[in-house]
């Protein structure tokens, strides 16, 4: 079982923390890709951004929970 993360006295599940961090990281990466003009190589920007967020979320969930991404999401 994964433990909660204490943020200023409020216990938060690690997957929620991972989701927020993944969203922030995805936005920073998207901003960088836009500034560099690399989105011209992407077929569908919306799908790319969603996939990037999900991949980052799974990776961060695995890091925060100490297991594989599949175990982190299924319990």
Q: What is the terminal separation in angstroms?
A: 7 Å
Average predicted confidence as pLDDT: 88
> What spatial form do the alpha-carbon principal axes imply?
elongated
Compute the gyration radius: what is it? 15 Å
Category from helices, strands and their pairing: mainly alpha
Quaternary state, please? single chain
The biggest beta sheet is recorded as:
2 strands, antiparallel
Strand content: 5-15%
Helical residue percent band: 55-70%
Number of discrete helical segments:
3
Record field, number of beta strands? 2
Count of structural domains = 1
> How do the strands of the widest beta sheet line up side by side?
1-2
**SSE pattern, N- to C-terminal:** EEHHH
Description:
By secondary structure, the chain is mainly alpha-helical. The protein has one domain. Helices cover 67% and strands 8% of the residues. It contains three helices and two strands. The chain has helices at residues 14-36, 45-65, 69-74, and strands at residues 5-7, 10-12. The protein has a two-stranded antiparallel ribbon with strand order 1-2. Helix 1 packs across helix 2.
Describe the SSE topology.
Elements: E1 5-7, E2 10-12, H1 14-36, H2 45-65, H3 69-74
Antiparallel strand pairs: 1-2
Helix pairs in contact: 1-2
Task: Please give a quick description of this structure.
The chain is mainly α. The chain has 3 helices and 2 strands, in the order E-E-H-H-H.
Structure keywords:
75 residues, mainly alpha, two-stranded antiparallel sheet, 3 helices, 2 strands
């Amino acid at each position: 079982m994964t433990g909660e993360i204490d943020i200023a006295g409020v216990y938060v599940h690690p997957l929620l923390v991972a989701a927020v961090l993944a969203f922030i990281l995805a936005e920073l990466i998207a901003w960088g890709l836009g500034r560099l003009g690399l989105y011209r190589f992407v077929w569908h920007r919306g799908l790319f951004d969603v996939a990037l967020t999900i991949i980052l979320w799974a990776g961060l969930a695995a890091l925060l929970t100490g297991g594989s991404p599949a175990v982190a999401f299924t319990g």
